[in-house]
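SAMPLE LOG
Freezer: B-3
Tube label: C17
Construct: single chain, 398 aa
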Amino acid sequence: MPVPVLSSHEVLAVAAELGERFAKGAAARDADRVLPVAELAELSASGLLAVTVPAAYGGAGLPASAVAEVFRRLALGDPSIAQIPHSHFVYVNALCHQGTPDQQSFFFGEVLEGKRFGNAQSEIGTRHVREFRTTLRPDGSGSWVLDGEKGYATGALLADWIPVLSHLDVDGPLHVAWVERHAAGVTVVDDWNGMGQRTTASGTVRLAGVAVGADRITPYHLTFEGPQTYGAFAQLLHAAIDAGIARAALADAAEFVTTKSRPHPDALAELGISRHADDPTVVQAFGELELAVRAAEALLAEAGRAVDRADADLDAASAGAASLAVAAARAATTSASLEASTRLFEVSGTRSALDSLNLHRHWRNARTHTLHDPAAWKVRHLGRWALEGRLPPHHGQL
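STRUCTURE (predicted):
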């Protein structure tokens, strides 16, 4: 069934409404590891997952800055739900970069019908995160056979299509093989057991002799042969998730302190303060946290605009500026999400640590998601730029 094509004015309101609705069950879903099947269906039906389909193919073609704010608002409600469609947007973007007109027409049409893309990219046991063993081999009749195993396959379990990053023949360049979720030889295992982001179903995808037509293969390596914002866009959405976690942790801390916390005895005895929220040490702590979260949100918004500017006028300088802006946002949102979700307990007191409240999910989610790409390397690239004017490396993680 076709999904609505949302305008730039509608998209943020819809994202805020869904984020608020998803927030109501987030703690319980996390505690019991209940996958958000119904919520994801609602997200698909809303039209939010189709907002980057180009206007030429019937979509809204909204810019990166708008998508980042959608992710932030969804993550404010439930960061697991926000993370599940991350790869969906990344691979819609991959089609914009390298899909043929026929492939774009077909797959963009699928998205406008509410279909979801998953992800089978990372592999466990390789030397590093950008090394892959999964391979497409020719079957002798013009088609291909896909074999391999992928880990951290967020979104695959509940997807309609799984884009698989693989070599084209042995040691050939990287391509994306588009396979249907329930195709013969595709097995998706719900074995994700991380301490945070518990309901993303980021498990294993096994591919055994999966038949792939030549019309379901798109080049990946060509994206990086010239200036691109592919990596910056993907990293921008990660930053938005962390910004949402930071704001949610701060909001829950404020709610707890103003409604449940008791004042420290010394504040009562020395200052006559009978309300914990009036303790000057608590007010100072909240001011510091608000400053950190606002700074992260501002850097996120600027990073989105930098990607938009590069997309409008793409060259090495604008692409590099976008990557640096996103690197700053990722470093800041990493810090803010970890600080807010940790100091939540410092300002709220002992009772906030009760397992039944599940306030610790904010820290677990932040700590787990921020491990995706080390913030230290983002800062290192910023340092090289500040010292030497050196642009960051040209790959999909910047």
